[in-house]
Design a protein that fits this description.
Mean pLDDT of chain A: 96
Strand content of chain A: 15-25%
Shape of chain A: globular
Order of helices and strands of chain B: EHEHEHEHE
CATH class of chain B: Alpha Beta
Shape of chain B: globular
Number of domains of chain A: 1
Mean pLDDT of chain B: 91
Number of domains of chain B: 1
Low-confidence stretches of chain A: none
CATH topology of chain B: Hypothetical Protein Ychn, Chain: A
Low-confidence stretches of chain B: none
Oligomer: heterodimer
Strand content of chain B: 15-25%
Radius of gyration of chain A: 14 Å
Largest interface: A-B, 20 and 21 residues
Strand order of the largest sheet of chain B: 4-3-2-1-5
CATH topology of chain A: Hypothetical Protein Ychn, Chain: A
Helix content of chain A: 25-40%
Largest sheet of chain B: 5 strands, parallel
């Protein structure tokens, strides 16, 4: 079965974003495929490469990077949600004359069309947060 | 990108001015419609506050949600559903809403949720 995930909740508030990453691992482990994970609204903080978590808390970024690098899961941050939250890739940082990129390279910035495509081409779309 | 036969329901459960989530839901609805996906919208629970008459966002420096809602028919989003029990709780009358919506009772909401292929919950 083809799954897509819509992540709305921030990784620093509540459990939604961490549950989404764990769900993605479980989906793949069960032999299904993931077309895309789309991060929207506060969910876009998932890509924050400059966030620093206390050592006694679980890593929020690592599980996503692992999914992207080891399982080739596509991670897309909604560009309009992301840039207003200071989540920029190198291109956007340069375009808006900001000092540096702030998202991890495992994530890409794109428009809502990616959510539309994910919805149209997945058997299940699962929303986390909201 | 159209996928004929699939219908998506956007469920709006949060208040219009309490967070950015409400605007995100409407942006998603308009994007879906712009790509010619079949979508409907359900205002559920506190989400029915989107439909309150005489909204004025200027005092808190945000745009009026009701103007955005009134533009939904231009995007061919015609089916707007409203949780009747919550509307009654907030004393929201059918004639007050900025966009015409169909008021549904609990059983009708259950039918609506089960007949859609995808639910996007905001």
């Amino acid at each position: 079965m083809i799954y897509s995930l819509l992540v709305l909740s921030s990784p620093v508030s509540g459990q939604g974003a961490q549950t989404a990453a764990a769900f993605a691992q479980a989906v793949l482990a069960a032999g299904h495929t993931i077309r895309r994970v789309f991060f929207f609204d506060a969910g876009c903080y998932a890509g924050a490469d400059l966030a620093v978590f206390p050592q006694d808390e679980t890593d929020r970024l690592g599980p996503w990077v692992e999914l992207a690098e080891q399982q080739q899961v596509e991670l897309v941050l909604c560009i309009s949600s992301a840039i207003r939250r200071g989540q920029l890739d190198a291109t956007e940082a340069s375009r808006h004359e900001k000092p540096c990129a702030s998202i991890h390279p495992a994530f890409t910035l794109s428009g809502l069309g990616e959510l539309v495509d994910a919805t149209a081409h997945s058997d299940r779309l699962v929303t986390f947060g909201g | 990108m159209t996928d004929a036969g699939r219908n998506t329901l956007i469920v709006i459960r949060h208040t219009p001015y309490g967070s950015s989530l409400a605007r995100a839901a409407l942006d998603a609805a308009m994007a879906m419609a712009a790509f010619e996906q079949a979508i409907d919208i359900l205002f559920l629970g506190d989400g029915v506050l989107h439909l309150m008459p005489d909204q004025d966002g200027a005092a808190i420096g945000v745009n009026n949600v009701s103007k955005l809602l009134a533009s939904l028919p231009l995007y061919d989003i015609d089916s707007v559903y409203v949780d009747a029990a919550s509307a009654a709780k907030y004393r929201l009358a059918t004639s007050d809403t900025p966009i015409a919506g169909q008021f549904l009772d609990q059983a009708q909401i259950q039918q609506l949720l089960s007949r859609n292929d995808h639910l996007l919950g905001f």
